[in-house]
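Checked the freezer inventory, then went back to the computational side. Two predictions to log before the end of the day. The first one is the construct we discussed on Monday; recording sequence and tokens without edits.
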Amino acid sequence: MAAEELRTVVNRLRRAEGQIAGVIRMIEEGRDCEDVVTQLAAASRALDRAGFAVIATGLQHCLTDPDAAADDGGREEMRARLEKLFLSLA
């Protein structure tokens, strides 16, 4: 992955890290269940977006790099791997 793409993913992961730390504090403080779940959902979305960004970058790399999957068998294998990764986040 390119440096700029990595920076974006790392920023998303840091945001999720902060949200998860906040959820832990909320639970330890005995905060309202609805508030905790709302923050958990936000952290989950941040993680999903980071994962999708990684997959999108891999897909873009495969489409633009002629050596990534030179033959049809390689392309099919790569497609299957990317699909599996995508579905792991669904």
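The second is the one RB wanted added to the comparison set:
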Amino acid sequence: MIQAQKGTKDILPAEISNWQKMEKIANEVFSKANFHEIRTPIFEATELFARGVGDSTDIVNKEMYTFEKSERSLTLRPENTAGVVRAYIEHGFSRLPQPVKLWYKGPMFRYERPQAGRQRQFHQVGVEMFGAAEPSADAEVINLAVKYLNELGLNDLDIEINSLGCPECRKNYREAIKAVLKPYLSELCEDCNFRYEKNPLRILDCKVESCKKIFEKEEIQKVILGDFICPECKEHFEKVKEYLSALGIPYKENRLLVRGLDYYNRTVFEIKSNNLGSQNAVCGGGRYDSLVETLGGPNTPAVGWAMGMERLNSLISKQQEQRLDVFVISENMPETFKIIEEIRQAGFSAEFDYANRKFKKQLDKAAKTAKYALILMDDEIKSNTVTIKNLDTSEQVNVSRNNYLDSIKI
């Protein structure tokens, strides 16, 4: 038997209502903030992710699904920010009034060990704002993330923020980090040793317990907690915090928060749920002011975030399965087809028994799946009436076929 591939999962009809809820609320919340949906291809030129996400990241080095086609290297998207930036450049969005505010949803692909809430094909919902350098944009997207999670019924959240500063800020910081960690290189994991040369700030993102204990050493903490960002970046970060306080959004600073992608600068943030285990982040994002230019566009400030929808699905309440409005019970198939179309065209959901079984069998099925049973047996057909039974209260009425739809109260 051929089965779904490891790390992929069918979303079955019994669970689809949660996914529809996440998508519906995303559209409602983001549209109110004047964000517009964009849908990009699920595969792009491999170069887009190598240049955009960064060749020192785990995503590019270990996790991408890449294949050759007609001598071109293509990759299934491991994240969507790079694709949205490519679309922003390609379609000349920089010529539109700024900021340009976009949101997306859809599948992403990463080759990694499947675990709770994490698959090789997974889904993300996210927002990106282009053309606004002000800290108010940072606060706006964080507020939008919190609003979306609250609308999904998730309120037990921790918001962590940090500032990585600008490239000039990080230059000295990187050197200080490398200097203080050099004596411990032999004790750090293989990934940390690789990052030491390519992107030493990423070392602080390591989840290996032995590495985390090294970071807690006093001399290393002194560097991590040092005031390394320039006055301009510091002012930006202070304004972000001021605006979050004005919005009533509680937050805490986490100087170890660097995010896993190379393109971030200045503000970075994560939102965590206290109802998950060790992998408790439900949202991550930040500012990426150089990415548009890196990918060939004009100098454009940008900020955004993404959320894993599988993790959201594990947290939100399961939706009750939707019942049909009407189940038609009849042993006359031509008449069934006539009335089923009338009911559906009137805007109600309706179903019937394709096997045309006996009355009792059909009524049993109606009771399990619908709010009303519409009975159209020989007596009703002869008298040009229908019998409508409320399956919640067991009340039933016999009404004229000419105005029976008025008796269906949904």
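For RB: The first strand starts at residue 36 and ends at 37. Residues 385 and 400 are 4 Å apart (CA to CA). Let me know if you want it refolded.
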